[in-house]
C-alpha cells in the first residue's frame, strides 16, 4: 500500500483546500490511500517555547503521520500572492528539531496543489513553496500541476466535489504522483 499524507493549509472549517483533499482521498488509484490532515492546534513557532518544552503535541502527532507516509501532498491556499502564514508556520514546526529534517523531509516525494475562488488557481502560492521544499531537501514532483480556480463553482455547500472535469484532472494528478512516489521509493 502506498500512503500519502495530505495537509490542508487552512484553519477554515469549510476550507476549499481541505475539501479538495477529501475529494482526492476518494479518487486514489488502486493500492494507494490518502490520509487527510490539518494544521489546527499548532501554535505560532516560538524558539523559547521549543527550548523549554520541545515540539507541541499537535506537531509531534503530525510528524508521526508524516514519518509513516510515503509521500506528502500539500493543498495550499494563496494569501496575497504567497503562502498563508499559518501553513508556513506549521511546516516550520514540522522541520524542528533540525536533526529530524533528514528523517521527515529529505528525499521525500512532495506535490503541491491548491484551490481558490480567484482566477489564478494558487499558482503563486504553489511556486512560493518551491524554495521551502528545496530547503527541506525534499523530492518535489514537477510533472503534474493542479491549480483550481473558481473553486466555489466546483464544490457544493457540503464540500462535495461536483465538477466532473476537476474530478478527472484530480484523478490524473493523483495517478501521476503515486507513480512518482512508487518510483522514488523503489530507487531508495
Ligand atoms: C485571500 N485570497 C486570495 N486568493 C487568491 O487566489 N490569491 C490571493 O492572493 C489571495 N489573497 C488572500 C489574502 C487573504 C488575507 C485572504 C484571507 C484570502 C482568497 C482565498 O483564496 C480564499 O479565502 C480561500 O477560500 C482560502 O482557502 P480555504 O480556506 O478555502 O482553503
Structural summary, described in words:
- With 188 residues, this protein is of the alpha/beta class.
- It is 43% helix and 15% strand.
- The protein is built from seven helices and six strands.
- Strands 1, 2, 3, 4, 5 and 6 form a six-stranded parallel β-sheet that branches.
- The longest helix has 24 residues, at 164-187.
- 37% of the residues are buried.
- The structure holds ligand FNR.
Global outline: globular
Overall mean pLDDT? 97
Rg from alpha-carbon coordinates? 16 Å
Which regions contain 5 or more consecutive residues with pLDDT less than 50? none
- Helical fraction equals 40-55%
What structural category characterises the helix and strand content?
Answer: alpha/beta
Question: In terms of topology, how is this protein built?
Answer:
Layout: E1 2-8, H1 16-25, E2 32-37, H2 47-53, H3 57-68, E3 71-75, H4 85-94, H5 100-104, E4 109-115, H6 123-135, E5 139-140, E6 147-148, H7 164-187
Parallel strand pairs: 1-2, 1-3, 3-4, 4-5, 4-6
Bound molecules: ligand FNR.
Q: Could you give a short description of this structure?
A:
This protein is α/β, with parallel strands linked by helices. It has seven helices and six strands, in the order E-H-E-H-H-E-H-H-E-H-E-E-H.
List keywords for this structure.
188 residues, alpha/beta, 43% helix, globular, binds ligand FNR
